[in-house]
Amino acid sequence: MAIKTVQATINGQTYTLTLNSTSGKYEATVTAPSKSSYNQSGHYYGVTVKATDVAGNITTKDAADATLGKSLRLQVKEKVAPIIAITAPTVGTYLTNNKPTITWKVTDADSGVNPATIGITIDSGTKITGDSIAKTAITEGYQCTYTPTTALSDGSHTIKLDASDYDGNAAATSSMSFKVDTVPPELTLSSPTDKLVTNQSACTVKGTTNDATSSPVTVTVKLNSGAAEAVTVGSDGRFSKALTLAEGTNTIIVVAKDGAGKTTTVTRTVTLNTVAPTIKSVTITPNPVDCGKTFVISVEVTN
Questions:
Q1: Alpha-carbon distance 301 to 126, whole Å?
Q2: Phi and psi of 11, rounded to 5°?
């Protein structure tokens, strides 16, 4: 009996096949579904083939058929890789915490992110995967968090992130660098000395500062209740600031701040006394005094 039609139904679409006179088979060129088959039941699109003869007899085969079922399972793979987006820390940032929490997102709009492939590498260490990375499901992927178990050394560090989707597409490796700085800057004052008493109102604050990890360091100088004023720090770390002291006790506060925001403070107290002492009285006893004998001179002085 002659065949009237042969049809194939894939993902809800029905296609009529045409007899190829050379091969003797019914054929059709079909555009695959636009989405991966991974999220379909069984990870494939089931294909149903229906053959009808001119007498109206129909034979149907589908993916559940014991003989032809496997050949009626269409696997469709996407070619778009997942996207990795680092949330924290931001590139080039300075961190005062040597066990920083690293957060990022991995998303894939089709077959989905395979959580087993999510990994992080810190510097040249071993890639970390699995349960060490906390993964929270979000739309089309995962929000990921990792905190190093061993403190990172002060200085520069690089993290690299990896992930793939269920169709095996690997995301472009995402990397970024940051610095850890747990040590405040060095700050040394060469003048004035603490608790200095002087009759000169002109006073120069001099010192040096440095930070091995996050230079340059900024310096401010504050005199008494005045505002903290920025001071220029040379490439060698030296700085100076001219001040005018007030009569009496003066408090000078010098603060050095590094790129990570850590500070070191040095305080100096300087007393300005421009009032000369007053000699109120002088007494010589005895007076007159015999030659070669001793006498006592008593002077009353106030200041």
A1: 78
A2: 55, 40
Block residue for tokens 């440095």:
210
Assessment of whether the complete model's pTM goes beyond 0.90: no
* Cα-based distances in Å from 116 to 41, 120, 130, 149: 21, 12, 6, 20
Q: How far apart are CA 152 and CA 183, in angstroms?
A: 13
CB 89 within 8 A of CB 102: yes
Domains in the chain and their CATH numbers?
3-74 (2.60.40), 83-180 (2.60.40.1220), 186-272 (2.60.40.10)
The answer to whether 122 touches 133, Cβ cutoff 8 Å, is: no
What distance lies between CA 218 and its chain's CA centroid?
Answer: 23
Structure tokens at 222: 């504050």
- 3-state SS, residue 43: helix
The order of strands in the sheet holding 141-146 is 83-88, 102-107, 141-146, 134-138
| 3-class secondary structure, 72 | helix
Residue pLDDT tens, the chain, 303 long: 699 999 999 999 999 999 999 999 999 999 999 999 999 999 999 999 999 999 999 999 999 999 999 999 999 999 999 999 999 999 989 999 999 999 999 999 999 999 999 999 999 999 999 999 999 999 999 999 999 999 999 999 999 999 999 999 999 988 999 999 999 999 999 999 999 999 999 999 999 999 888 888 999 999 999 999 999 999 999 999 999 999 999 999 999 999 899 999 999 999 999 999 899 999 999 999 989 999 899 999 988
Alpha-carbon span 159 to 165, nearest angstrom: 21
Query: Cα–Cα distance between 86 and 82 in angstroms, integer?
Result: 13
Q: How many CA atoms lie within 13 A of 133 on its CB side?
A: 25
